[in-house]
Amino acid sequence: MNPPVLLLIFNRPDLTEAVMERIRQAEPEQLFIGADGPRPGHNEDKRRCVSAREVATAVDWDCDVRTLFRDQNLGCKEAVESAITWFFQQVDSGIILEDDCRPDPSFFPYCAELLARHAEDDRIFTISGNNFQDGKQRTESSYYFSRYMHCWGWATWARAWEHYRPQLKHWEQVKTQNWLNQIFESRRSARYWTKIFNRVEADEVDSWAYIWQYHIWLQSGLNILPEQNLVENIGFGGEATHTTSSKTGCLAESIEMPLNHPPFIIRHRKADRYTQKNNFESTFLERLTQKIRRIATE
How far apart are CA 77 and CA 166, in angstroms? Predict the structure, then answer.
């Protein structure tokens, strides 16, 4: 298999070129490109959006290229979710990469093998290229199963994306009946995600990823995470929407092929506890601390 690839771009041609370099090595037979439009009041956006689109469509291998280029800016949430929906109206499965997510070459065969292996397994919702376990080897296999969806380079099926909705379906019922307490071992974690989803519901967060994670949980879905991090986020910095710090997002490593598959499909609770504590709750506390410090120095 050589799965179709959806590349999501905006106004960063330099980052787009870095990701295109890796896509070019993989030579997918189908490349879909979704591009958000320039923002009002940002004079450089139009030129940079055009430049990014030129980079993304510079395909020099035998490939069916399809584009969804927006004239107006839809924002992070609507631009991404509508492009993924457009993608899965035309293919049954595929890989999704944003313009700042540079994968290791092994990411593509990794996704291909798992897309084929779990095509009919409704329990599995996504295949991520991310590992945020800070070097901790969780299993003797090539990957493990998690409640968490990481989207710095991932793959899924149209059958899974059918569960996505632009809003948090049944959120008031889930919240009032404390259903998040059934998902998490910790009430603290349930409170954390309740706050996140309340902000999403109030349109305070322009993100599709939280909404996708929520709908995966509504279906008790599992996600595949590799034992090595396969995708580096190269978009950290002032121009980013969410990853605005100056650090990089985990260096990409190579995974050995063919994959060593787990003998069973059971969520790795210890790894998930580490993810919740170190990728979500501590990150939130760090942001809160930074905000308090800024207010104190003003």
Answer: 9
